[in-house]
């Protein structure tokens, strides 16, 4: 595969002076051509762990949550390799599995640092999983203490609200729930997610501002409104992720700029410590 443009010079200093100790980037992908691809999803350019660690220096983060990329299907070898290299004290993984995944495979993933499974079902053309798999798999992974991570559009959240409400494990919504841009927090899915947040077992990733805005850089003002609204309801259950290497974007944003944007939305050291350090430690089971 071709190399990505996301290289960061090693001598660049961290972007932020506000990044607290134990800070985590809770959403990134590793794309490494050493691992087998599936045919259904288009392969993005290589974005290796070595590439990401250069960005990590700029972010000033210590921990990372590596989310399975669609191009690898249900072969989680790439994320497992990255977790092993970083060490479980600094890395966790979110895998993709199917209902026919054996209990032995799930146990192995658990031992190797996986703490959740992802369903990216917003685009049926290249989806590896489907909505009808969510509830059966949620029942199977509940005993591990894992979570279900969802990338759904607002309309899909609204259409599947009863099922989401009865899942027996924590929920993590990617990318601020991808509320419809024209309606934002006024969309019915916002109230549904707020209900789930109030139950106490749901988390929101304040990631991919560029997918949640009509107003673009540098302010992403409407994305900021959504992020602040979720944080106001459950400040102890919001986390941040860079979404590196931004596979949906033709023009790649700077991950350090996205972290700076978070600091502008929440200009409070205590709140930033929650989002970047304390909340990730609770969700991903890192020692405080």
Q: How does this model look, in words?
A:
The protein has helices at residues 49-59, 77-86, 103-111, 134-141, 154-159, 161-165, 188-199, 221-233, 255-265, 269-284; strands at 24-28, 63-67, 91-95, 114-120, 147-151, 171-173, 202-206, 238-240. It is α/β, with parallel strands linked by helices and 288 residues long. The protein has one domain (24-284): TIM Barrel (Alpha-Beta Barrel). The protein has an eight-stranded parallel sheet. Helix 7 links the parallel strand 6 and strand 7 (202-206).
At a glance:
With 288 residues, the protein is of the alpha/beta class. The protein is built from 10 helices and 8 strands. Strand 7 (202-206), helix 8 (221-233) and strand 8 (238-240) form a beta-alpha-beta unit.
């Amino acid at each position: 595969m071709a190399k990505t443009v996301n290289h960061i010079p090693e001598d660049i200093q961290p972007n932020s002076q506000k990044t607290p100790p134990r800070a985590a980037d809770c959403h990134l992908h590793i794309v490494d051509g050493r691992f087998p691809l599936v045919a259904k999803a288009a392969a993005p350019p290589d974005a290796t762990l070595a590439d990401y660690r250069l960005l990590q220096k700029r972010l000033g983060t210590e921990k990372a949550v590596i989310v399975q990329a669609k191009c690898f299907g249900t072969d989680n070898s790439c994320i497992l390799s990255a977790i092993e290299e970083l060490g479980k004290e600094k890395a966790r993984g979110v895998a993709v599995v199917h209902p026919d995944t054996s209990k032995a495979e799930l146990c192995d993933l658990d031992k190797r640092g996986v703490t959740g499974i992802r369903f990216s079902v917003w685009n049926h053309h290249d989806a590896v999983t489907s909505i009808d798999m969510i509830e059966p798999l949620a029942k199977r992974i509940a005993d591990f203490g894992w979570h279900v991570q969802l990338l759904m559009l607002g309309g899909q959240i609204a259409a599947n609200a009863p099922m989401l409400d009865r899942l027996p494990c924590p929920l993590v919504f990617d990318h601020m729930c991808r509320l419809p841009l024209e309606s934002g927090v006024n969309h019915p899915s916002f109230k549904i997610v707020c209900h789930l947040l109030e139950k106490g077992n749901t988390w929101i990733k304040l990631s991919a501002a560029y997918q949640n805005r009509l107003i673009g850089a540098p302010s992403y003002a409407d994305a900021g409104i959504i992020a602040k609204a979720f944080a106001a309801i459950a400040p102890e259950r919001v986390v941040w992720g860079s979404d590196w290497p931004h596979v949906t974007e033709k023009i790649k944003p700077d991950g350090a700029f996205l972290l700076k944007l978070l600091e502008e939305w929440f200009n409070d050291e205590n709140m930033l410590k929650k989002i970047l350090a304390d909340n990730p430690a609770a969700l991903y089971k890192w020692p405080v």
